[in-house]
């Protein structure tokens, strides 16, 4: 097969190679992965810690006829190659996603973030509030440590984070090889399964999440978790001008026994925001898209129709 381009003929094989090359060149501009599905208004979806874009498969299936879904896999997570940035890799992801919105000319996208990805979504929206059309938080908060504890010393937290960051960066290759060997043992997997039962009910989903963990770059994830732990965005939510929907789970917080206790802390963290709606699942654990999908998608639909 031949294809005419201008004054030249090229074979289909060469044409396909050129297409693939141009795609790779574009993709190399960003260290995160992105899957684009659907048509319509833009919606960006960020999964949680070590999560794959597949986290949102059911959500994308629901919205693909009305939204173009840009589904992210963060650098170093679930098989996506890690970023070369070591000092501020999470900030790097924030800035790259902002750049992606600008360069792809995505007009006022809906920004959806789950858990770890929810905090990152808050950081994006509060850094460039002019770019975001609406923010949907799936059990994500401005300051994770502030949910678990009433009082935290940020100076101490940030000092400890700097110390841990140096240790992670300075660790030698044989250390990471040892860590990887431990992470892929049967015992480690069994403990991970028990831990995940606190966050999601379906055992098939638990194994899927653990598979993503296996595929993740442990050094990269440690660096980003460390950076996230020192990030306090409670005051920053006041900068977000777009409407915010927060869908929370109280059963996912193992240290709390009542929905009212968790809800009060969520309300306090989001109180500086101008337009925020907070609703809690009665039944779902942390992974709301797996534990209480119909309720979650119903709340999202209602919110999106109201803006």
UniProtKB/TrEMBL annotation:
Protein's organism: Mucilaginibacter frigoritolerans
Stated name of the protein: Pimeloyl-ACP methyl ester carboxylesterase
AB hydrolase-1 domain mapped to chain residues: 44-291
InterPro entries: AB_hydrolase_1, AB_hydrolase_fold, AB_hydrolase_sf
Record-linked Pfam families: Abhydrolase_6
Signal peptide feature range: none
């Amino acid at each position: 097969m031949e294809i005419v381009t201008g004054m030249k003929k090229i074979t289909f094989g060469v044409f396909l190679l050129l297409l693939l090359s141009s795609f790779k060149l574009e993709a190399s501009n960003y260290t995160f992965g992105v899957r684009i599905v659907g048509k319509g208004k833009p919606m960006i979806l960020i999964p949680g810690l070590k999560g794959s874009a597949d986290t949102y498969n059911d959500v994308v299936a629901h919205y693909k006829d009305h939204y173009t879904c840009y589904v992210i896999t963060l650098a170093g997570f679930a098989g996506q190659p890690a970023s070369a940035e070591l000092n501020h890799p999470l900030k790097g992801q924030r800035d790259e996603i902002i750049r992606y919105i600008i360069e792809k000319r995505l007009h006022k996208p809906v920004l959806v973030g789950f858990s770890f990805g929810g905090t990152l979504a808050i950081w994006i929206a509060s850094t460039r509030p002019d770019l975001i059309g609406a923010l949907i938080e799936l059990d994500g908060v401005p300051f994770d440590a502030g949910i678990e504890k009433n009082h935290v010393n940020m100076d101490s937290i940030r000092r400890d984070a700097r110390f841990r960051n140096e240790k992670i960066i300075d660790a030698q290759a044989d250390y990471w090889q040892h860590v990887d060997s431990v992470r892929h043992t049967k015992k480690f997997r069994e403990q991970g399964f028990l831990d995940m039962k606190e966050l999601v009910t379906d055992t098939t989903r638990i194994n899927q999440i653990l598979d993503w963990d296996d595929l993740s770059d442990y050094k990269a994830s440690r660096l980003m978790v460390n950076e996230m732990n020192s990030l306090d965005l409670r005051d920053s939510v006041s900068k977000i001008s777009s409407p915010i929907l927060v869908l929370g789970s109280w059963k996912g917080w193992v240290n709390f026994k009542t929905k009212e206790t968790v809800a009060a802390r969520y309300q306090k963290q989001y109180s500086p925001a101008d337009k925020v709606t907070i609703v809690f699942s009665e039944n779902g654990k942390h992974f709301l898209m797996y534990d209480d999908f119909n309720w979650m998608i119903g709340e999202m639909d209602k919110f999106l129709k109201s803006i």
